[in-house]
């Protein structure tokens, strides 16, 4: 699968957005880094899948609670309530993107070192329960 130049830029923006959000949390919920991470993440997502598909993704009826929490968390971060904003934003993120976790887990299990780590007995059970991907075989 080949990516267009706009999609490549979107992947970079989304990656930097995630890194800025992680850095903002590690630096005791620095509001400026969190706000910048949110802007980069949303603009990168828009460039990857397009503006119309982004709107339809967030506007779907079954994703409404996740959208409200995600956007509400971003607004709280912008209004200088970074801790509460990140907590609400995380709830929204899990509601919006939780369907992708089994796919991500399957991909990570194929990565050489990470796959062997995720297939350890107790870690495998926890990862499967979090992702909801399969039932553990006894």
TrEMBL record:
The chain crosses the membrane at residues 9-29, 35-56, 68-88, 100-120. Belongs to the GOT1 family. It is a multi-pass membrane protein. InterPro entries: Got1, Vesicle_transpt_Got1/SFT2. This is Vesicle transport protein GOT1A. It comes from the Eukaryota. Pfam families: Got1. It is found in: Golgi apparatus membrane. The lineage of its organism: Eukaryota, Fungi, Dikarya, Basidiomycota, Agaricomycotina. It comes from Somion occarium.
């Amino acid at each position: 699968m080949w990516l267009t130049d706009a999609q490549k830029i979107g992947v970079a923006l989304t990656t930097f957005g995630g890194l800025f959000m992680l850095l903002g949390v590690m630096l005791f919920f620095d509001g400026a880094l969190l706000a910048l991470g949110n802007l980069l993440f949303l603009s990168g997502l828009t460039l990857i899948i397009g503006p119309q598909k982004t709107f339809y993704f967030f506007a779907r009826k079954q994703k409404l609670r996740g959208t409200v929490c995600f956007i509400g968390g971003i607004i709280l971060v912008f209004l200088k309530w970074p801790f509460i904003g990140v907590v609400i934003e995380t709830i929204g993120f899990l509601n919006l993107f939780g369907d992708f976790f089994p796919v991500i887990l399957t991909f990570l299990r194929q990565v050489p070192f990470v796959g062997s780590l995720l297939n350890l007995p107790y870690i495998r059970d926890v990862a499967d329960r979090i992702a909801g991907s399969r039932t553990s075989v006894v």
